[in-house]
Amino acid sequence: MSVAVPALPRHRPLTRWTALGVVGALFALLTLAAIGFGSTWIPLEAVANVLLGGGERTERLVVLNLRMPRVAAAAIAGGAIAFAGYLLQRITRNELASPGVLGVVDGAAFGVVLFMAVFSNEANALTVPVAWQPLAAAIGALVAITVVFVLSGRQASSAIRLLLFGIAVAAVCKALTTIFMLVGPIYQASQAARWLAGAVNAINWGEIQIMALCLVPTLLFAGALARNLPPADLDDVSAQGIGLNVPVYRILVFTAAALLTAIAVSFVGGVGFIGLIAPHLARLLVGRARLAGILMAMLLGAMMLMGADLIVRVAFTPLEVPAGTVTAIVGAPYFLFLLMRKDQANG
Amino acid sequence: MDEPSRIDIAELTLAYGSEVVLDALNLPVPAGRITVLAGPNGCGKSTLLRAMRRLHAPRSGYVMLDGRDIAGMGGKDLGRQIGLLAQSPSAPPDMTVEELVRLGRYPHQAMLQPWSPGDAEAVERAMAGTGVRELRRRRIGSLSGGQLQRAWIAMVLAQETGTICLDEPVNHLDMAHQIDCLELVTRLNREEGRTIVLVLHDLNLAARYADQLVFVHRGRVVERGTPARLMRADLIAQVFDVEAEIITDPVHGRPLCIPLGRSRPAETEAVPQPA
After folding, report:
1. Residues B231, B255: contact at Cβ < 8 Å?
2. What is the pTM of this model?
3. A288–B95 CB contact, under 8 Å
4. ipTM of the complex, rounded to two decimals
5. Residue B125 is assigned to a structural domain of this protein
């Protein structure tokens, strides 16, 4: 009956918050570096100076209008999708769950592509405000997760079934997205393709404002839900026995995760693997603690996307390689590693 | 038994799809007593136990708790009245025993109400009562079967409910731990007056610990009463398909069932009749 438990370190509150502090400091440092790096190097103290309101004109222009938006977008998208992954891994009690694997990322991406196909004119300009784009992503994400949920049927509590249907739904959404890019009136298909792979290069302040405005209420919703995560760690019968309405709670958590994913995908594209890795690493670093785990996952997720964007900027300039390709190159082997470890644990 | 009942089940019908599991079942659960549900595999006894805790919605009929229909009660409210130990409960292997036991306080906590000294005391009492205090920092995944079962019972105890339901609590335990577990349950009943409902497979354990023994067969209560009244060869043949001889346990004075063989040749499994 006893199961071999991996020798995880004990996560005392002090070490937990120390770890969070260290990662927070690294995050601040990476933010400055991500702004500093580019076609011209701006020293960190100059970046800090601009952020505090000083600096000369050209420096201000480069920092505030060219570099800051993509760093901010990477931070918001990475943090949001990491939180989504955290929620999904806890509620399914499976470390393989993530917005990407469950079809939510591709559902949101299909929503956006459909939106762009329907609401753009011959000049490839949107005929409706871009602010509607997150809504399209949210609808796509929610439809995808609903389909996964309904297909899983009465065994929706079985993580394996959810994952299998999620992978299937993701494949269908991907195919539909490709079809719409080929036959639909998206004239700059290559640009859409780059967005789909997860890119933060073409973002502006207006879009970041929209992301942030969507993020705040979603964070509050998800944060309030997270209070009930510990009882949901138990099997369904035990969780209901102590008074948690498991079916309703599960739907609410999936909704929150879909909305968080939609915020990330709507402007930044497919960055799915961050939603798998960041929460998993956070759990290794801070254990089962909820608040620290969520903050850690979000910080790590933000850093991963910022770091991936930094890598493509430094290594591939002047080519604009999507940051999502870097996260996928790192993320896919990580997924395989988790799969193999899981097999071992089960065998 | 004309004692006040804690739970009253009236005409309860419950089905999974077209398969009727409980068929217009009636059962009073007397307050402050140990009620044991027994019956062959698939007779509906576990479903009945879970229905008492509203884990299944009935097709018709009622489960009344102290005179109130549980269908209209809030989840946390019910969680403060009835504790349930699942048949094969599971928790993350890296959860500690204390974390698990603390979850028992969940139904007592309101949205913005922090952990109170009362909660901490309940957790301490529950861990002391089940002897898992020295295990509090141990991870769930590192416990032996007996330790694990005590940790789960501690979780249910921390709920501080007047009624506790346990679904086959001794299933995976060796003989010593079976006795440990059932003695613990008996103590909770005798010393604290809690109403206990147990599902037990072992008829002799059932007869030894039950105040009220209930034979469930094909989704109905065939007979209920004291073990002395229920442990009859003809009834056991009818419910369990087993030819048995009943003697009196020389130590406890309780009836003891000695199975002799199947009363009918091994045949079609008892299939619940569709309504």
Report:
1. yes
2. 0.87
3. yes
4. 0.87
5. yes
Domain range for B63 is 7-268
3-state secondary structure of B40: coil
Q: Do A287 and B94 touch (CB under 8 A)?
A: yes
A4 assigned to some structural domain: no
Domain total in chain B: 1
Taking alpha carbons only, the member of A275, A285, A282, A287 closest to residue A324 is A275
Q: Does any domain span residue B274?
A: no
Is A241–B156 a contact, with Cβ atoms under 8 angstroms apart? yes
Minimal-distance CA residue of chain B relative to A232: B91
* pLDDT tens across the length of chain B (275 residues): 456 889 999 999 999 888 899 999 999 999 999 999 999 998 999 999 999 999 988 999 999 999 899 998 988 999 999 999 999 899 999 899 999 999 999 999 887 777 889 999 999 999 998 999 999 999 999 999 889 999 999 999 999 999 999 999 988 788 888 998 899 999 999 999 999 999 998 999 999 999 999 999 999 999 999 999 999 999 999 999 999 999 998 888 899 999 998 876 555 555 555 54
**A2 lies in a domain?**
no
CATH code of residue A57: 1.10.3470.10
In a domain, B242, yes or no: yes
Nearest in space to A137 (alpha carbons), one of A245, A318, A261, A247: A261
Name the CA dihedral angle for A200, A205, A206, A211, rounded to a multiple of 10 degrees: 60
Number of domains in chain A: 1
